[in-house]
Amino acid sequence: MVRTGSASMAAGPTLAVVAREAGVSVPTASKVVNGREDVAPATRRRVAEALERLGYVRRPRFDLAKAPRLVDLVVHSLETSWSGAVLHGVEEAAYDAGLEVVVCAGLGRTRGGRPERGWLDKLVARGSSGVLFTLAELSQSQYAWLEQHRIPFVMIDPVVEPPAGVVSVGAANWQGGVTATEHLLALGHERIAVLAGHRRRMCSSARVAGYRSALAAAGVRHRPEYVRHAGFDGSVARRRTLELLDLPEPPTAVFACSDRMALGVYEALAERGLRVPDDMSVVGFDDLPEARWVRPALTTVRQPLAEMAATALRLLVRMMDGDRPEGTRTELSTRLVERASTARP
Length: 345
Fold this sequence. Notes:
six-stranded mixed β-sheet, elongated, single chain, alpha/beta, six-stranded parallel β-sheet
């Protein structure tokens, strides 16, 4: 007997309760529920009556073939608005494609910052159909492992140039560096410094190269002492800015290769009692929400992070369906967003 008001009845009778009521085994009751023919008519009738009497509601069967496909998104960290923009882009594109996304943030990294092999084994175990890597640098053995297991993947803003044939999505970093520098040159600045990111990171090198190209095109002398590396770290950018201010001829403008570093420039100037843009113009790169919140609002190069992530997801879906993209590198355009942090020197 099933006690009225019990937890079992609150959720509806289980198949085991129905089987006990009909005096049959659970497998036999299951056969009746699922319309199997290998059940005696009398037994079928008893089970059907028990189902009716108890008010059994058949649960929908889990059909693996109809289940949403899984993709993994491997992000460096979830603590930054940069990652938030990427997540937003992947989420919207995945919803449109009917995919579920598993987010893996900064887990199991080796000394070189690469995802550990154990994570790759878990990828197969949970049945993911593909992977998006952001700001990742994989080893040759990890590339080979993914290829061996035929797991399609796309790199979003890879740290270094990926091997031939690897599909990646990024921004027009070189052009962004040109645009930022040309904006400062047009305002009349010639003493323009640049705060670069990591020396090995592909996007940082491209932005600095764009900065140098714009100076050369304008006939402005490149000063090696005006190039400082801050590793995309705001606190390091603050220290590098203080070093620039201590030069015999400090710059009148700074192009920071990330918004995060640009905020470090703001801090250094405030420490010295200097104002943006009255004493120094500042241009960032990314156009994160912080660029609008800071005062004065930051002029910056917009990197279409959400669009990059959505594009990468759509490319991954094509690869999961057996379609290989024509090109391996997709670059989305950048544009300058002028705000209040730049002025004539």
